[in-house]
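Contributing new complexes? Match this layout with pyridoxal-5'-phosphate.
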Amino acid sequence: MEHFIKCISCGGEFGGNKVIYSCPNCGGLLEIGYDFESICERLGKSDWTSRPLSVWRYREFLPIGPLIEPITLGEGGTSLHRCQRLGERIGISRLRVKNEGENPTGSFKDRGMAVGITKALELGKRWVACASTGNTSASLAAYAAKAGIRRTVLVPKGGVAYGKIAQAIAHGAEIVEVEGNFDEALRLIIELAVRIPELYLMNSVNPYRLEGQKTLAFELFDQLGGRVPDCVVVPVGNAGNISAIWKGFRELEASGLLDPPLPRMIGIQAEGAAPIVKAFKSGSDAIDPIEEPATVATAIRIGRPASWKKALRAVRESGGLMEAVSDEEILLAQRLLAAEEGIFVEPASASSIAGLMKLRQSGEISGEEEVVCVATGHGLKDPEVIVESFKGPLSLQDFLLSIRAMAKAA
Ligand SMILES: *Cc1c(COP(=O)(O)O)cnc(C)c1O
Ligand SMILES: [Zn+2]
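Output block (do not edit by hand):
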């Protein structure tokens, strides 16, 4: 699809397929732009609705040329679950959860990585790299394996869940451990990518990756039969995903497929890593980075979110909200979603449910609103969190005693 690269700060425009990670004029964040008239023409000719629900169903909206075969592991097309029981408990009559844990490597990162790695091949790159709290590295490793190219991941020492690093190892990534936290690892890999042209950066400052992630908005629209919900609640770490989802809704509108109102975007951060929430609540136009972010939700343990500006814009434009939740609230939400709805997510994902509970209690979201919570990643990514709070199994003897007591009582 024909496209260009645009700076969100100064409005500077650059040719599509240029390898840049920030605006050459002002250092601002980049995004991909399109000519929507030509998208609409193409859509008229192709039969979008007859294709399976997946990232590639929306190929006309993706910045990938027609000649390249997508690198795919079956990303996207995740379930949108009606959650009646959990909804009743929270006081939301129409609650749905979009379970991104169903993606091939277990998180929404696969949407972006499929498009990003396909783009890497289109650009002739044979080496990709990222800094990661875990899920991006798992996804990068799998898709680069499928593409047959070199893959390097920088992980912060001690800040990564086991399941995720196991995936990167299994998929044959070169794993580099960096002293310091995610923010420092990201700064380092950006510096390397700018200096080494062979190395293609796959973090979300690469605007091509976010294009894959916006397809979640398109899927919601299709899964609800050509409508959108009132609110979409999204966990926020580096802030690329909430920005991408909002971009998706805006593009549906720009193509004439969706009429306003668009959903309110609700961004949730963990209390120990909530610089964007703080900026939103104080009405500020800049964030105050957090030097030592701390939360049980490792995927959103980020103190200096790269895409904060896009996220603030998304939330404000949509008339949305931001809220911070504690680790206790996150772990409670994780247990409720697993035990009441059969959906096991990692702590970062559960922050969307925790945030919804809090905003429902404060009345900022009403019980009549139709709400979709995005569950960003699978619970098996980080099993330790659950096992640590488990009091241990019953002994067989105690179990048999409890059965005997039951029989006596009956
Ligand atoms: C990456 C990730 C997030 C945060 O997404 P951002 O785009 O960094 O805001 C949340 N949850 C999970 C499971 C993730 O992997
Ligand atoms: Zn600029």
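Reviewers usually confirm one structural detail per submission. For this one: The longest helix spans residues 240-254.
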